[in-house]
Amino acid sequence: AARLEHREEVNAIVSDWSGGLPREEVVARCAEAGVPCGAINSIADIFAEEQFHARGDLLTVQDERAGEVTVPA
């Protein structure tokens, strides 16, 4: 409950700590400490990850101005 009362302060502390670390290291450190967490993918990550392609999570649509465009589903 105290965490929620001090949400802005906690968020600032976590942001300062995690901001200088690679995403994979943040996830690994949290996992080692028993803190539930997960990586958030960027758009570039989504397009580069084969699993998104295999699951059909990317759609190719026709745009009047841009032509054929692939977007996350």
Spell out the blueprint of helices and strands.
Elements: H1 2-5, H2 7-19, H3 23-32, H4 43-48, H5 50-54, E1 58-63, E2 67-72
Antiparallel strand pairs: 1-2
General description of the model:
By secondary structure, the protein is an alpha+beta fold. It has two domains: 1-40, no CATH class; 41-73, no CATH class. Helices cover 52% and strands 16% of the residues. It contains five helices and two strands. The protein has helices at residues 2-5, 7-19, 23-32, 43-48, 50-54; strands at 58-63, 67-72. It has a two-stranded antiparallel ribbon.
Give a short summary of the structure.
The chain is built from five helices and two strands, in the order αααααββ. The chain is α+β, with helices and mostly antiparallel strands and 73 residues long.
Radius of gyration: 18 Å
The total beta strand count reads 2
Low-confidence parts? none
| Largest beta sheet: strand ordering | 1-2
Distance between the termini: 36 Å
**Could you tell me the strand content as a percent range?**
15-25%
Task: Give the oligomeric state of the chains in this entry, treating copies of one chain as homo and distinct chains as hetero.
Answer: single chain
The percent of residues in helical segments reads 40-55%
Number of helices: 5
SS-based class = alpha+beta
Average predicted local confidence, pLDDT: 93
The dominant shape is elongated
Instruction: Give the total of domains.
Output: 2
- Helices and strands, in N-to-C order? HHHHHEE
Largest sheet: 2 strands, antiparallel
